[in-house]
Write a structure and sequence with these properties.
This is AraC family transcriptional regulator. One of its GO terms (molecular function) is DNA-binding transcription factor activity. This protein is 47% helix and 14% strand. With 321 residues, the protein is α/β, with parallel strands linked by helices. The protein folds into 2 domains: 2-204, Class I glutamine amidotransferase (GATase) domain (Rossmann fold); 217-319, Arc Repressor Mutant, subunit A. The strands form 3 sheets. A 7-stranded mixed sheet has the order 5-2-1-6-7-11-10, with helices on both faces. Strands 3-4 form a two-stranded antiparallel ribbon. Strands 8-9 form a two-stranded parallel ribbon. The mean pLDDT is 92.
């Protein structure tokens, strides 16, 4: 038996709170059909018994306040919305309770950008964290001591689970169910709720957005030039000459500010340009590849798949407008 506390945080989204509750409680029904005992006790927990979400659009009645819960086995942190800095201040009263539960052995399941709150407690320091691609730059700025990953939608480290973007939290719930009750139950939940159990990363959905909140004028100029000229052919030496900066020093500075080398940044911009062409134009795939400056079609296909987890052909089939 495991006791699960789903936190009703300020600025949490109602949909992820309710879907987490529905999925986890339904597991007990699946067990009952198999002639087994229930495994989860699921409760919604807040600072008070009645909470208002989404600027008053929803109201929710919690089962207990966190003051009434001395011990829980699993804490689910919901997806948050709004200004993260303000949201973290609103939810600060939860921090000591969450830290205490983790220190007493609880697992923590953080859904998507709920990881902003989890990170604010210090429990993610030195650990890996998956985050929605659109929030990655802001998260890295606020929490530079946390290793953000984007090659997987789920992290599992020392009883702390995080996940990448949007509704990928459904995959995280399946993952946790599998850890608790085995693959068979996870597959059954996948089939009953029609969740794609094989989703492993968020690469196909990422729109590359460079980190620009670094305050370096020359790096910003380089980024803007690269982004304005996705199909242009130029060398890094030519770019540095254009900006009147020394190549070696500038490359180090660019990497520090953006998290990408200049070559990687150029590559990401070209892939993003190719994605938009594949989505909206009738051009042949090879024509698009040549247009972004690649003479070696196979080389670009490898680069494209590295960043999207799909071949250009499969990407076009999936996202063609």
């Amino acid at each position: 038996m495991k006791h699960i506390s789903i936190l009703v945080l300020e600025d949490a989204t109602m949909s992820c709170i309710d879907s987490s509750y529905q999925i986890l409680t339904r597991i007990n029904d699946f067990l009952k059909y198999q002639g087994k005992e229930p495994f989860y006790t699921v409760e919604m927990a807040g600072l008070k018994t009645d909470s208002v979400l989404n600027n008053g659009l929803y109201s929710i009645h919690t089962n207990k306040t966190i003051a009434d819960i001395s011990h829980t086995d699993v804490v689910v942190i919901p997806l948050l919305c709004g200004d993260f800095s303000k949201t973290l201040l609103k939810n600060k009263p939860y921090c000591n309770w969450l830290i205490s539960q983790y220190q007493n052995g609880a697992e923590i399941v953080s859904l998507c950008v709920g990881s902003f709150f989890l990170a604010s407690t210090g429990l993610l320091a030195g650990k890996k964290c998956a985050i929605h691609w659109a929030a990655k730059n802001e998260f890295m700025t606020m929490f530079p001591d946390i290793q953000v990953i984007d090659d997987s939608i789920i992290t599992d480290e020392n009883r702390i689970y995080t996940c990448g973007g949007g509704y990928s939290y459904l995959n995280l719930l399946l993952y946790v169910i599998e850890k608790h009750l085995g693959r068979e139950m996870s597959v059954l939940a996948s089939k009953m709720f029609e969740i794609d159990i094989e989703r492993k990363n968020q690469h196909p959905f990422i729109i590359f957005v460079g980190q620009k909140k670094h305050g370096d004028q020359y790096v910003l100029q380089a980024q803007e030039y690269i982004e304005r000229n996705p199909a242009a052919l130029y060398t890094i030496d030519e770019l540095c000459t254009k900006l009147a900066v020394g190549k070696r020093t500038f490359e180090r500075k660019f990497k520090k500010c953006t998290g990408n080398s200049i070559a990687e940044y150029i590559q990401r911009v070209k892939v993003e340009y190719a994605k938009k062409q594949l989505e909206s134009s009738d051009k042949h795939i090879n024509e698009i590849i040549y247009e972004v400056g690649y003479n070696d079609v196979d080389a670009f296909r490898k680069v494209f798949k590295k960043h999207t987890d799909l071949s250009p052909v499969d990407y076009k089939k999936k996202f063609r407008v």
